[in-house]
Amino acid sequence: MATIADRTAPSGGTIAVPAASSGRSRGVYAWITTVDHKKIAIMYIVASVIFFILGGLEAVVMRLQLAQPENHLVSPQAYNELFTMHGTTMIFLVVMPILFGFANYIVPLQIGARDMAFPKLNAFSLWLFVFGGILLYYSFFAGAVPDTGWFSYAPLTERPFSMGQGVDYWILALVVTGIGSIATGVNLIVTVIKLRAPGMKPMRIPVFTWMSLVTGFILIWAIPSLTAAQAMLLADRSLGTVFFDESRGGDPLLWQHLFWFFGHPEVYIMVLPAFGMLSEIIPVFARKPIFGYTFLVGAGIAIAFYSFLVWAHHMFAVGMGPWANAFFGAASIIIAIPTGIKIFNWLGTLWGGSIRFTTAMNFCLAFIAMFTIGGVTGVQFAMMPLDWQLTDSYYIVAHFHYVLFGGTFLGVLGAFYYWFPKATGRMLSERLGKWNFWTMFAGFNLTFFPMHILGLMGMPRRVYTYPDKPGWGAINLLETFGTFLIGVSMLIFFYNLWKSARHGEIAGNDPWDAWTLEWATTSPPPDENFPVIPQINGPRPLRDAKVSGWVLFPSDETRPPAKPSRLDHIPAAVLGVVVFVSSEVIFFGGLISAYITYHGRDEWPNHEVLEVGKVAVVTAFLIASSVTLFLAERALHHGNNRGFRRWMIVTVVFAIIFIGGQLAEYRTLYNDDVTIDRNLFTSTFFTLTGFHGLHVIAGIVMLAIATWLSFRGELVKGRDTSIRAISVYWHFVDAVWIVVFSVIYLWPLVA
Amino acid sequence: MKRTRSRWHEGREAGGSRPSRRSGARASFLLGAAALALTVSGCTSSIDSFAPVTDRGHDNLWLLNLSFILITAVMLLVFGVLGYSIVRFRNRTPSEREGNSRLEIFWTATPALLLVVLFILSVRTMNTITSGHDAGDVVTIKAVGNQWWWAFDYPDLGITTANELHVPTDRPVRIELESTDVIHSFWVPQLGWKLDMIPGRTNVMNFTVDTPGTFDGACAEFCGAQHAWMRLKVIASPGDQFAAWSSQQAAAASTPSDLVTKDGESTFLRESCAACHTVRGTAAQGKVGPDLTHFGSRETIGAGVLQNTPANLEAWLRDPQAYKPGIVMPGFDRLSDEQIRALVEYLEGLK
């Protein structure tokens, strides 16, 4: 059976602009400077694998320490550092980036695009991840390893309980990687919205791409909450603010709310792309279309939506009261519904199919079983009183390893076996794959299933040792054996990767007889991915080409006319800024909610030290700057470049007046000894207005650059995407100030 | 030699079954089922979560058991369909079915109904657990978490102790949970549930113990270096025994009767012990560490890290950091052997 590549030699038609990494540079330099999504993806994955080895070694040492009761293999301090680094590494430096890597590689191919929407931003995200990870691990060399758990609860992370710099390394490394992750979210969203091949209507998008799109939305709205919380913790630790310092009025629970508002959607960031992987692999190896595509996609969207409503189920045991407990319990138990739908859809895909037991398929079948186990224990945790017995024990350790390791990670291994041929042109060895799979299946269950029992027996989590109670030692030892089996499995996997990259069977374009666009090009694909942009006729375009003769790569003359879309007049960059700005809503929302929470709790100083009138004046200037910016854009639109520059300069001047006013206000306050570290008011006031001020300054820089570009004649009507993007940002910054001004300055006047 | 398609591709066309896969799957399934059955049957009685000793704990266990039954049913359903598919659906012409709206609505609505029921039952049990006591002779205890020990105060009985919580059976108990430093969590599985101790707040646990005995517990919120050894015991005794314990504990420390214990007491008061510990009836009124007024009556040292025996106590006094590194208590190895032994005698005598 001839494959598509045989039939479609590029003949006429537009060859699109070659990808940014031209053949000019070679070797390591080419990789370091690349903006090509495929190379970036491979680097994401390689770096994740390296961090996986580090995180895995941490786990091995932990399990050796726990193999016997009252063991002395490592000190308590070392153990606490190990479990903190293990969790932080696996979540932020392994699972997230490896999923980003697969999304980076596959999504542009699946939608028939040449690259992501923002290739340079893509590279930026990658290197932020790499350097953030290096920063975290530098803590070992600095002798200041984080040791307060991956969720760093206050007040344990405050001074005086954590005097070393470990927590600071944790904060800074994750702020760095977090910015990269938000950028990845923006990239994924704009790519899928704007760069789909003609004919790829939403209900024809492959499920993996759908899940990547949805994950992008979760990323941009979840991570800023963590960033806000980390900014507050850093301020507590280094500037003396009191956000979470109970002895000075702060509330430790504020940390938990902000953290878990990020933390719960985070786990769906870590699982939805894996759901997408399964939804690609299972149909191909069951030789059946995915069952219930619409419900599957809808369920993914529902999960993403609900994931933002359930965060406090991580806080059931803090004593929030019956109404809060009931609300979060109800929302959490509802999430089981769309998740169950997905499981049933995969089973429905298998049912009546003709299953091929490739290693990729085996991992997906195991995922279904393991994720079901993790999912049902998750339902138990949604039941509030059961959570009160089970949480913070080894039962929860079992639960999350079943969903993240038995779920996501097994899915990722399946994705390796499935897509490795596409990226390298060679097949992974199925013989080694079988050994990889069965040792992993046995090792994983041996390690993590008994943890359910330990939890029920009363073993708490995050303990460097435990007393010699009946059964505890034996079960722990069994789990340690399982760890070694997992290690063996991963060694087989690495050997398979290494050997097959060199000597694996040549794969060809489409070794699996699959149906989505990535298989319609060579393995590996050329820089520009496809000879011409494909034309799409259904959800399985390659299948349409194979079975009904659909022409996937038409020449210009035979291509049907493009259908206009409502989003055509919005350039990608502008859409990107809109998406980015929505993430900033969450960041500022975190700071504003801290302010509102703590409002009115201080005797003095409090809002009464503020001079509303003076700030109202500079506020007027800031709001006016939005008007002048609008006038500038209008002038540009009429071809009046000088008018544009004049209004831009006025805009910049107004913004500088605003900043000047803010600095004058800060100076007055500091002269009156109203410093940031006085109390709740000063902590929240200076942080909120300070971050806003930094955003204004960044905007001033951008506006100045745009003005300069206009002086150079480079920013004119028709080449004005940059100013359109900047103006979205600027209007947003002004809108935020209206909210901040109302909350801080106006609210006390009416209350 | 290059080939443009994989062996898998050709194998698909050639057909043929894979017996090794089928027997591998069946063997794994049987092995797993056997392991599970063995585990469940042998262990339930020795698993604390299945052996509650309070009224509310029994309620919670009922809900837990119900949840296990339901999730087992779900797992059997999913594994059954999965296993059947693995065995049955190979080497055949696959169907082209892309969906079945009725089925999809059914498998959305049915779990939704079951989950609503579970939620309602959860709210009911939650309310039971968090309800106050009906009128009765409530024993109130203030439990304060510290890094890394528990302070227990019985304000109505004039008792202050540490690390061991004595309660009467068949009488309502009310525990007020607080913390002096970081977040801890009070967890004794046989009581039925846990509750956090958060600085700046008071959380309340109400229960009545129905069975006498000793029940193990531990801090369940990571609280720093020695979280692992912030363990506790709850000792429930019938009314008369509890009354006897109470009056003994409420009394001031027993005065030393012989030379050795007198020597121990004076060493205790002379050294830095009194700066951190309280022994009621003496000049030692320190509040940094656990109250030692009746230390001799406790089962463990250091919140569970050592059994309370004279030999262990001596080792502990010489170098507590060897057993619980990171705590603030210094070692007293510089004292002479006689002084250490006198201290041990004195402390063990504080019954």
Cα-atom radius of gyration of chain A: 27 Å
The oligomeric state of the chains shown is heterodimer
Low-confidence stretches of chain B: 1-20
Into which percentage range does the β-strand content of chain B fall?
Answer: 15-25%
- How many helical stretches of chain A? 23
Largest sheet of chain B: 5 strands, mixed
Task: Kindly identify the CATH topology of one domain in chain A.
Answer: Four Helix Bundle (Hemerythrin (Met), subunit A)
Please report the distance between the alpha carbons of the first and last residues of chain A: 77 Å
Mean pLDDT of chain B: 90
The global form of chain A is globular
The largest sheet of chain A is: none
Detailed description of the structure:
The complex is a heterodimer of chains A (751) and B (351). With 751 residues, chain A is an all-alpha fold. Chain A has a domain at 599-750: Four Helix Bundle (Hemerythrin (Met), subunit A). Chain A is built from 23 helices and no strands. In chain A, helix 4 crosses helix 15 (394-424), helix 9 packs parallel to helix 12 and helix 20 (612-637) packs antiparallel against helix 21. Chain A is globular and about 75 Å long. In chain B, strand 6 (184-187) and strand 7 (194-197) form a beta hairpin. Chain B has helices spanning 7-14, 19-43, 55-88, 101-130, 239-250, 259-270, 273-276, 310-318, 337-348; strands spanning 139-146, 149-154, 159-162, 164-168, 172-179, 184-187, 194-197, 203-208, 213-219, 231-237, 300-301, 306-307. In chain B, the strands form three sheets. A five-stranded mixed β-sheet of chain B has the order 3-2-1-5-8. By secondary structure, chain B is an alpha+beta fold. Chains A and B meet through helix 4, helix 10, helix 11, helix 12 and helix 13 of A and helix 1, helix 2, helix 3, helix 4 and strand 7 of B.
